[in-house]
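FIELD: query
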Amino acid sequence: IRGSRDDQGCPLDNHKEVAVSNFALHESHCQRFLCLCPDCDEHVPRELLELHHQNQHSQVKCTKCDKKVASCKLLNHECKARLQRCEFCPVELPLSAMAEHSVACGSRTERCSDCGCYITLRDQPEHAQICPDLHVPENPSPPSSNSRRTAVVCRSCMRSFPLEEMAEHQLECDHKSEDHKQEQASPRLTSSMKSALFSAQGRRQGGDVDQISTCPHCHLALPVVTLRWHEVKCQIHVNLK
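FIELD: result
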């Protein structure tokens, strides 16, 4: 049995386990028929030493880079002309050109199908470990009513509103902004406008708030209360034209 207490490793025969009772005979046999290769320190049969040297240690020239190496190292030597496949694409290039190619090829970006971000090919393995959308549960719990809502700033009035309310606010804010521009274009009412305003107020003062009347400028039917300020605005718009 290999490694038992009755066995002993032979230093001349690749530490082969030999029974202690037969070790002396085995050792004398190895000393007689084996010798140490001066190139690789391996014990080989004496009669095969020359063949071993020829097959393993003779200098041969690499057909790709013309470098001379030992025959036993030919397949694994660092041949600069040896073709190597790029880790980012299917292209095969000589080893001497692969470093430069890998820098450019690895810098290309592809869009992550999970989070939509553009990630370089070189960083994709690391991104796969930290991509936020990869770790979102399939059935996420609905957000609690106490969770903080996202706030955005209106570009017209520079006030902050919840994201879900911004669309409604912008409709109102844009309308006010347009009215403000018209007021700036004609900051003072002419005497005819003031007269129209006062006459309109005089006609409708004390009237029914649900009464409908038409604007004399655009003929739009509006409640009396609304028509009071609309008529003035409409007059301004007519004068601007």
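FIELD: remark
The first helix runs from residue 20 to 33.
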